[in-house]
## 1
Amino acid sequence: MNQTMSFYKFMHKQIIVMLLLHMGTAPGYLLMGYFYTSMVYESVWMLIMFIISVYGYVLYKQFNIKMTINDKQMWLTKVRLFMYIYSVSWIFMFVYYTSFENVEMHYITIATELGVAVVAATLLASQKNLVSFTVITLMIPLVVYFLIVGGTYAYILAFFSTVLAAVIIYSARNTNDYISKSSYQAYHDHLTDIGNRRYFLEILDSTVREQKEKYSYLLLIDLDHFKTINDTLGHDIGDELLVEVANRMKILSRENGSTLSRLGGDEFCILSTPLNDKLECTYQAEFFAKELLTAIRKTYILDGNNLHISASIGASIVDGKEVDVAEFLKEADMAMYEAKNAGRDGVIAFDESLSAVVHKKLEVERLLHFALEENEITLNYQAQVDKQKKIIGCEVLVRWNNELLGNIGPDFFIPIAENTGYIIELGTYILEESFKSIQEWNSRKLDIKQVSINISIRQLLHQDFASVVEELLTKYIDEDSTIDIVFEITETGTADDLKQLVQTINKVKEYGIVFSMDDFGTGYSSLSYLREIPIDELKIDKSFIFGLGDKQQALLVKTIIDIAKNLELIIVAEGVEEEYHREFLLDLDCDLYQGYLFHKPLPKNEFEALLLARELLLVQ
Ligand code: C2E
Ligand code: MG
Ligand code: MG
């Protein structure tokens, strides 16, 4: 690990401490010279000390937080040299004064020699090898002096001095071990034994300062659905998995010289070594991210469990831009967020257009939170007609009109609501409002057979879903209601969710609710879904209907209808815009039709007017 920023700052401060200590005590020798000797040696010594001090001060001034790591390392070597020379230069005065007859002078130099040894050991505690070296150099003259003086008394002092030197070295080394350990802990993640967030930010900070014409890439790696593993298998397995994932990434990072850290939870970050070309850097980022994804995807065997996990990776390019380092992380974070949105298990690189999209999403996310409170959510109803074009039902479609953003389509804000969890509150509101309409239409005896409501998978999988539905049914829907309620669900979600999904659907079906598979054909597991999920109706996605002009697509629609007929499902076609769509579908015996050819989604009162006008027409 490189020396950390705070360490350089610490050493920087020590220069001044050293200068002050020496400058405060050294003139004492001049005074002694004035009283006892010729002052010549003292003056020469003071001059040498002054020159070394100037050098120390130059080093102090030289230090700049923006220096590159290499420059800092070089600077540190010079500081060490300065401190060493500065300390051991006292030996000269010791040797000089102990040659005098005057015993008081001896006492003074012995005391200063000891003092300098202790001060040097304290200030240089962070430099293990230098401490021993300096203390030994300072103490040897003292021991030799006692040995030369001779006699029991002096030998005991020589022995004590040696012991003292050993004790000083021992305690300085102990302090050093303690400092290194606590700085290791401050910069390391205890679980995975890689750098932590603080460490990463410092490395990123110095990289940004260092990089003038060079580029590094930053990868932000977030595990997909890690929370589920933690929740279902427990935190111990979750921890083991994190360690294993970190190990796999550690091996790959070591191979290409990049720095891996854990930012927290299931979030990791990698910073590459500098590259000369920006394009090359982007290319390498993607290449390495894919290597990481492959490594992460491989099976984990933990505690007898076979586990699989994937990750979403956001990449950003770090250059010498004069910006806050957090900005680069934010960019990678935005890209990672997009990788999650794009279906996870992938990598997305940050660019300016992505920034615009993400900012819009964040703004939508923020404003969406107040949408219900501000009464900005309304419902539209789009008619569904039978083969004779008679309206037999409708689909409830949510609308959001915001003062700042205008009309936002559900295709845009529903996925955001799903991601933030707001869909639970929003979905319940939509259910309640739809049920109120059904209650009202039932009591007004409007001629409508079924009302379809879109339900998000996330909403359906929420533990309270069945009880919320039951509660709302009891509150709004009479036993003898003649209007069927259909829940439209889409074919998303993982196999893990399937069991719970089927359970909930079966439970809700007991309340008399019918299920419809929406957007059929656009998901990836269409056919297996049809087998596993107890649905009664199937909606062909509008993209297929729009493509009916194409022979292949037409054949596909025919196949879908055949399968649905075999499974005895009611078939609904959405996006019927043209007469020839209707005719084609009619030929294939499609049951229900929904689309602009008949009616667009309408506000409640307009939809009711439509129903009433048609009844009037029938009466006439
Ligand atoms: P969806 O459930 O497949 O709804 C059908 C979409 O197709 C609606 O778009 C509808 O306005 C549109 N559409 C119907 N006929 C035609 C046509 O002839 N031509 C064209 N071009 N479009 C047609 P909308 O209202 O924008 O809704 C989009 C999606 O948002 C819905 O697709 C559904 O997945 C979701 N959504 C809408 N309302 C809700 C809701 O209340 N809850 C949930 N969870 N999702 C909703
Ligand atoms: Mg729908
Ligand atoms: Mg649909």
Note: The radius of gyration is 39 Å.
## 2
Amino acid sequence: MPVDIISVEKLHSGYNSSKVLNDVTFNITKGDYVGLVGPNGSGKTTLIKTILGLFEPMEGNVSIFGERSWEFKDWHKVGYLPQKLVSFNPHFPATVKEIVALGLLSKKAFPRKIDRNDEMAINKALDLMDISDLKDKLIGELSGGQGQRVLLAKALVNEPDLLILDEPVTALDPETRERFFNILEELNQVNKVTIILVTHDIGTIGKYASKLLYLDKKIIFYGSFEDFCGSDHMTRYFGKFSQHIICHRHN
Ligand code: ADP
């Protein structure tokens, strides 16, 4: 039996009285690699925030690892990279190593001290993102791409079971982007990490993800790329050309 990592049932969600998500139902099971795609304002970030328990749904239920998201406590199982990159003040007095270490603190009780195992985990995450040489640099001194890699290392340092990445590659150069996608693929295939990748890049997501969740305030499509590409209903919805753009890397 596949294990549900996320289960969303009849979710209605939004802000004050304006509803953004309408009757959204889907499951994500262990080892899924889901590309979450949709136009601007289609509710992708709202959905992620609801999954992360940042607000209660207006109606319906959202479970993460079998618990209601707003009651869930084991956040160390989840690595999250938000969309908006925080730009650090150049004089912000934290090093790369300290920022990555923050990712470990969510599973620690007080007093929160970094031990030898933590050091090893931090070094491993820095090595994975190829930024070991930046370890002692101040975070504010880094370029945008370097800063993004630091935040990715922070999201990975706990070896999370679920990774949620909101537009993660925008500040990365093509080489680092490729490397980053290779790392995600390995985490997904070898370590069975479940991944949700939010992206505008509808033309390349099929190259990486195994499932497509297309959202436009409600679910337009959820399933494998094979099913999406072979669906006459989706041809009618998107038109042959747009369907082809989403599919071409998959054919
Ligand atoms: P996406 O991530 O797909 O671009 P969002 O979930 O960010 O979409 O936004 C969906 C809708 O919700 C938009 O119309 C947006 O203006 C609105 N919205 C987003 N955040 C807030 C907020 N904090 N308060 C009120 N409305 C919001």
Note: The CA atoms of residues 75 and 106 lie 7 Å apart.
